[in-house]
Design brief:
Layout lengths: L3 E6 L10 E4 L10 H4 L3 E2 L7 H7 L6 H14 L3 H9 L3 E6 L8 H12 L3
Parallel strand pairs: 1-4, 2-3, 2-4
Length: 120
């Protein structure tokens, strides 16, 4: 089954079109209550490691290196296989993140990764 995978800031209001909503940040976003978040899952173990997150610091200059390092982390992460299995159960997924930068964040990398892994 081919899933549609969207990405969205957690600060944007939930919509019915979001489908299965997954927060992919390791740290809970500031200023958002659990009710406002309206999550189906919080997958903090699938987020970049604290070390990688702090190194990247949303610096666009480090973006390509971050993508490579985060993908390598996903390939080694014990949480990845169960996460992929969970994603296979849904046709419509929205990966939620807290970062202000909509182009350079882990959800962008994770969406690419999921599309690659869920192709089959």
């Amino acid at each position: 089954m081919k899933s549609v995978i969207n990405i969205k800031r957690i600060y944007d209001p939930p919509a019915k079109s979001d489908g299965y909503r997954i927060l992919v940040d390791r740290i809970w976003p500031r200023g958002i209550s659990k009710e406002e978040a309206d999550l189906d899952e919080w997958e903090k173990e699938i987020a970049p490691s604290t070390l990688l997150r702090k190194w990247f610091n949303h610096d666009p200059v480090r973006w390509e290196a971050f993508r490579t390092k985060y993908t390598a982390e996903l390939n080694k992460n014990e949480a990845t296989a169960p996460f992929l299995d969970q994603c296979r159960k849904h046709n419509n997924i929205t990966l939620l993140y807290g970062a202000k930068d909509e182009l350079h964040n882990q959800a962008v990398v994770l969406r690419e990764y999921l599309y690659e892994k869920l192709k089959s």
